[in-house]
Amino acid sequence: MGSGTTQAVAHKMNRQYIGIEQMDYVNTVSIPRLQKVIEGEQSGISKDIEWQGGGSFIYAELAKENQEIVESIITCNTKEELSQQIDKLLNEGVLNYEVDFEKFTNTKKEFSELELEDQKEVLIRILDNNQLYVNYSDMEDSAYNFTEDEIAFNHSFYGGE
C-alpha cells in the first residue's frame, strides 16, 4: 500500500480495491490516509471528481505465529536479551524440520562466540518460514484461541463455511 495513494484514488472513484502492506507503517500512514479520504480530504483528484467523502474500508491483519518470535529476536540489543528468546523459540516456535537440533544444542559454545547479528540470523533460520502466520486451515484449532467472530470473519472472507 505504501502511502495509500492508489487506494485513495480507487476509493474516490468508487472502485473496489485491495491494499496489501508488509511494512510496520500501515497504522501510521496507510490507514490514516484512507480515514482522511472517507472524511472528505481534498488532495489529488478530489476537486476534479467533486469528492465529498464517504464510504468505508475493511482492515485485516494476518495472525502471527513464528513472526512474533522473529520480531522479538530482531529487537534484541544484547546477547543476554537474545539468549532469553531461545527457550521461547524452542518451546513455542514451529521449527524448521531441516535443522538438526541435537547438533545445535551441542554447539552452544560456538554459537555464543558469534556476533549478535549472526546469532539472530541463526535463530531465525531455525524457525519454519512457512509458519510465520497462522494458516486459514488452522483457524479453528483451539491452540490459537481465536474468537468466534474472528473465525466467522475468516470464513466469510475466504468463502468457507
TrEMBL record:
<dbReference type="GO" id="GO:0032259">
    <property type="term" value="P:methylation"/>
</dbReference>
<protein>
    <submittedName>
        <fullName>Type III restriction-modification system methylation subunit</fullName>
        <ecNumber>2.1.1.-</ecNumber>
        <ecNumber>2.1.1.72</ecNumber>
    </submittedName>
</protein>
<keyword id="KW-0808">Transferase</keyword>
<dbReference type="GO" id="GO:0009007">
    <property type="term" value="F:site-specific DNA-methyltransferase (adenine-specific) activity"/>
</dbReference>
<keyword id="KW-0489">Methyltransferase</keyword>
<dbReference type="InterPro" id="IPR029063">
    <property type="entry name" value="SAM-dependent_MTases_sf"/>
</dbReference>
